[in-house]
Amino acid sequence: MALQWISGPPVDCAISAVGLKLSATGELIYAKQGLCSANVLPGVNSLLSIAVAADGRIALSGMTIGAVVLDATGKLIFQEPYAGQVAFDSNGNLVVGIRFGGQLQLAPDVIVQGGTNYTSTVIVKYDSANRYVSHFQLDRAAIVSLALDADDDIFFVAEFVEMMTLFGQVLDVPVALPYPAGVQFGSIAVRLDASYGVSWAKELDPFNGSVRTASMLSGMGGMAINGVGDVIVSSNAVVLDSAPYASATLVQLNASSGAPLLSVGAHATGFGRGVASDGCGSIYFASVQYTPDATTLLQKIAAPR
Known about the structure:
By secondary structure, the protein is an all-beta fold. 0% of the residues lie in helices and 56% in strands. The chain has no helices and 25 strands. Strands 20-21-22-23-24-25 form a 6-stranded antiparallel sheet, with no helix packed on it. It has a 4-stranded antiparallel sheet with strand order 4-5-6-7, with no helix packed on it. The chain is globular, with a radius of gyration of 19 Å.
């Protein structure tokens, strides 16, 4: 089954979306139009995340729709107004990772308090009946990507711009960059078990947050989990020679310890975008590189183990 989302015309609000469900042969199964909300996240009208449950439910998240769940026929069965990263666990629970500031209401009787300027992260679970289950919160870090493995362990990466404490580790304010290189952000990777116990948490290399384009939530790229649970993160490293003052990077972290297994850098300025892994562990790494014009590249990298 293939899934595709495209921008659609306004329906009862300024921006809406059209969802298409296609069969494996490309035949249209259904089209869903009119998903919209007054969303609290800053940014443009872009789809952030998509996930499919074992029972056919489809979760989508975007700047104008918040987080929504459709059943296998395309009927809207759940919507909350906060855009984030979505996934389903093996029990069918919807898992949403949200970056927020101020107060956030997760359920009628569940309100969390975060920092300012969208500098807090909450990961919340809702069951298949759309009822609140539980949540995890981390302050002074804004979630960028979220994924679950076969054991329902939760992996996420986040960015930070001020001093923070990461489960006992004090992380310093990212070093300021000289004009006009932009703003350097810090980054972290975390693995939690299904009950939010911390398996490991580590600081990643800083990146140039100013490479974020209008369609990107963050200057970081993407994240994927391979078949053995290793975490693969696409990002960028600061370079001061020429615009955009960054070069694409990729790192693979060991599933059990978070130790780096692979580190790849680009030979031209640019930044990392999406990343995925196949059944053999090979990595597919998308990036934008300036050679000298902006060019989108897709690399296949052999599995390091």
